[in-house]
Amino acid sequence: MSYLLRRIGFYAFTAWAAITINFFLPRAIPGDPVQSLIARAQGQLSTDAIQSLYILFGLDDEQSLVSQYFEYWGQLLSGDLGLSFTFFPSPVSDVIADSLPWTLALVGFTTVISFLLGTALGVVAGWWRGTWADLLMPVTTFLSSIPYFWLGLIAITLFADQGGAFPSSGGYDPGVVPGWDLDFIGSAIHHSLLPAITILITSMSGWVLSMRNMMLTVAAEDYITVAHAKGLSQRRVMVSYAARNALLPNVSAFALSLGLIVGGTLLVEIVFSYPGIGFQLFSAVGAKDYPLIQGIFLIITLSVLVANLVADLVYLLLDPRTRKEG
């Protein structure tokens, strides 16, 4: 219990530090977000309206940075993330609610599938080393070194441009009304296939390499030799003894990747103009949209912290040694 309380206290302090940095960092970006909003309005705002915008967004000179910081905490505790400059007057929570499902569906699904497939292939490659399974290593080493966005650009050139089979941008076809019907779901799946395959190929290769290396290390342990001496089958030794222990280091990495699902694969979403959180963050930085930047970073930070806390709890279940205190 004391271990769990220490971990919760650590994550609570980390959340406070991250939220504080989240407040001050966007304000260090040069430029005036209200002026960007005025430029989109083509200068059709009066002086009083401009001053009202500064007051509305808490950017007026009469309010100090410290008072803005405490006001920001008050808004967070009340569940208010503010109004977006880019999508004014829409609240930040509405903008995130519209884009978050796209990222969760694309990056979440591909992350889980890549982990499962990569881990399984890594177990096989590590256990049956010196056989045909070693053919996986040159391929996975090459693919893991390819950046997401570069592979995405190649995929667009080969399969989307010049009448290709896949669309090169967007989340669904123009003219399709979003809803839970076959037309929209089919269109959304069609648009997500190319970026999903791009993410799957590169991320799965990393899981194969890490799991194979851990299997090679675990295979030399004494308890593996004892398991063989007991006459257990190769499959049982591989799965119940070697793979279970080799999987432990990958749990933290997988938990971190689950937390980063919310952030999405930023460059992939930009390359494919996919309407996810990563693409919204890119647009918000360009527009100096403080509230939207803060809201997206807050969601990413909390998701990473929760995922790591879950990883600690999973460690307690998988490794009995972590349950010993003192």
TrEMBL record:
Topology term for the membrane: Multi-pass membrane protein
Q: Which organism is it from?
A: Actinophytocola xinjiangensis
Q: Which domain of life is it from?
A: Bacteria
Domain ABC transmembrane type-1: start-end pairs: 100-311
Q: GO CC annotation: what is one?
A: plasma membrane
GO BP annotations of the record are: transmembrane transport
The family database entries (PANTHER family) matched by this protein are listed as: OLIGOPEPTIDE TRANSPORT SYSTEM PERMEASE PROTEIN (PTHR43376:SF1)
Chief location of this protein?
membrane
Key words of the record? Membrane, Transmembrane, Transmembrane helix, Transport
Q: Where in the cell is it found?
A: Cell membrane; Membrane
Q: One matching Pfam family, short form?
A: BPD_transp_1
The family note in this entry says:
Belongs to the binding-protein-dependent transport system permease family.
Chain segments annotated as transmembrane: 7-25, 102-128, 135-160, 188-209, 246-272, 292-318
Q: What protein does this entry describe?
A: Peptide ABC transporter permease
